[in-house]
Structures
1.
Amino acid sequence: MYGITAVKEKRMNLLGIDIGGTKTAVVVGNDKGQITASRRMPTPSDTIEHYRKRLVELCHEVLQQAGIPVSSVDAVGISAPGPLDCRRGVLIAPPNNPGWRDVPIVEMVQQSFAAPVFMNNDANACALAESYFGEHRGARNLVYLTFSTGMGGGIIMNGDLVQGATDTGGEVGHMILEAGGRLCGCGQLGCWEAYVGGRKVAEHLRETIRSGSVHTSIVEKAGGIDAINMQAFEAAAREGDRFALAEWDAFTERVAQGIGVLIMVLNPDVVILGTIGIHAGEFVMGPIRDKLPKYTWKWPLEACKVTASSLGGKIGELSALAVAASGLRHSKSVRQA
Ligand SMILES: [Zn+2]
């Protein structure tokens, strides 16, 4: 079956590397987002040389598993946590690997492959995955948002990723929604991330519970006040815990405020929420949609679908393939120009 498909239509063979804080996934697939093989390994915090060696070995193992010779790989894509320098192919300071500074990861991987190696940050990579492989693939104007530990975003306008002058285009988590507001991890006051990023939300809940001697089932769901996280928060709110519900209302209000700004400024066809959108579904999407009319004009809002990602748990692997596909398409169009 695979052979027949391959004869009918030539697909690009792509190798994807999704570098996460604790795990690195290596995936082999094509430009349609079909995954042939994938494996994971821990992202160690020890020496970068050790990591490079193990990573290249794993790439070869996964290619072998997929039955793709190294010489048939058309492009390699790396999705990695920021901050990074896409042009130089350098990881500047990965948050979970304190020993790694200015790691020339693209050059390191390039040494083992003849195919071109491309890299982008994880949120931009996910936006590319949505635009190539997701339910709204082909949308010309798409915003992808991820509310995990921090808050990331990727913006595609007129079919192209918005990188900006210093690759910080799409860093929507650090637009300031409240002058002089909560302290963000980036050092600014009142960033969107300080109100909706998982780490900051948990911090806020802990402080509020402690200072007000609040009784809430969030603590028990989390297994202790220090272990409070978004899952415990959501679970308590779903069960109707009064404090959790009031905080959930405040949380979705801030999410809607930020999305409203993006809809007003960018006029996107679709805004896609990863992480919490996938996990919490309508419990989070419903209140956000209800609150959005307060934050944007009616007609760009009516033209915009605000929805949870359809790619679920596969988005990380697909994001690395999307970086490879995008790099290849872009470099071809540059050569043609
Ligand atoms: Zn910030």
Note: The chain has two domains: 2-121+314-336, 135-310.
2.
Amino acid sequence: MEIWKYGNKAMPIFFVSTQPGFEEELCQELQEFWPYLLNKEAKPHGIALPEVKVIEGGIELTVDEILGLQINFFSKLAGRVLLRLGTFRARDFAELEFQFRQMKGQLLRSESVRLEVTASQSRLNNEKRLAESFSNATKVKILDGDDVQRIYIRMFDDQCTVSLDTSGEHLHFRGYRLEQGEAPLRETIASFCLRKMLSSTGAAETQKISLLDPMMGSGTFLVEAADLYRPNLRRSYAFMGWKNCPALMKSPSLAANYPIFPRLFAKLVGRDQSEKMLEISRRNLQRAGLLGDLARPMVVDLAAADIFSEAASEFAADQDLRTWVLSNPPYGNRLPSDRGIIHYLQQIVRKFNPEKIGLLVDSQQMKDLVSQKKHLNGLTIISENKFRNGGLPVSLMILSAVDRT
Ligand SMILES: C[S@@+](CC[C@H](N)C(=O)[O-])C[C@H]1O[C@@H](n2cnc3c(N)ncnc32)[C@H](O)[C@@H]1O
């Protein structure tokens, strides 16, 4: 690889990280929001989407800085958006420090930095020495702490890549979920599940659908559903602290320059057996702007209810809306043994009669669903997506009742 550096003329390269397995969906998401990004004049940019390179754990693309930065607002699958500052070959520390010095201008976007160094399969394999070398060469103040500007240095196969973090807090922190239960779902995973549920269903079609999570925990699926296509301007991002941050990106009226993105779904329904989780969900939805006058005309219906309870008043389907259920029930090892995943599914069908069901399950629950097809009450498994949730192999099983007789 030749030496590459981001200077005044070169167009920057952005790396957008995501969970392994989500890369293709991230490309799809990027295509969808790409037309809505703004140029420096706060107008739609009108530039064709450049070629996107898919790498394990993310995607890379070469775009104007102002466009790349806005990926932070729109992507619900991204973990971080990194701005590549340079890639070069270095086999001794003198060469390395020379290259770091060349980058100093780009690094001084903030007073101090926090270093994240990884090294493998290279002559310069010592991460501590790499960090020292960076500090010697640039004289930039190196600090620890969550709110310090991060610089990523990756040394692999004698090739050094230096990147500036544009995101700050990991992007799954959306700014509304300040409280959670014992097994909260990462917001990025919830959004991935929603995108798979939606498949080719357009935003207009979702206005005829009520989305129900009968085991909502902290309400992640519900908020992510409402916000899926809307930019997240609720929190701050690392690039907003840069000395050269484009003024538009920090403007209090930034939101007014984007089109109004409708909230998905006509109605959000959440249930949980725990009163405590109901209150937590309520507060999270409140912070997300989904409760009260602001959210109209979207209807939100939250209550405490055990899915196995037979109280008739607990759920009344709307005659004019179709129901979709999306939930992640407790994993198999947390369920009472007489209540396997099939019982949960049967109860969901009996109580809510949904048209589509998405269940995020562990590998044993997935095997049970696949091997006990005859107990699925005529539901068809339409897709299975396997990935990891906090290190645990899980699967999003999507079932359809449309052809059920
Ligand atoms: C894995 S958590 C869901 C996490 C949620 N998706 C979130 O992001 O916070 C499972 C939830 O199901 C609830 N739950 C367990 N059994 C239930 C039942 N029989 N009826 C209703 N809720 C139940 C638990 O209280 C817990 O909040």
Note: The CA atoms of residues 263 and 273 lie 27 Å apart.
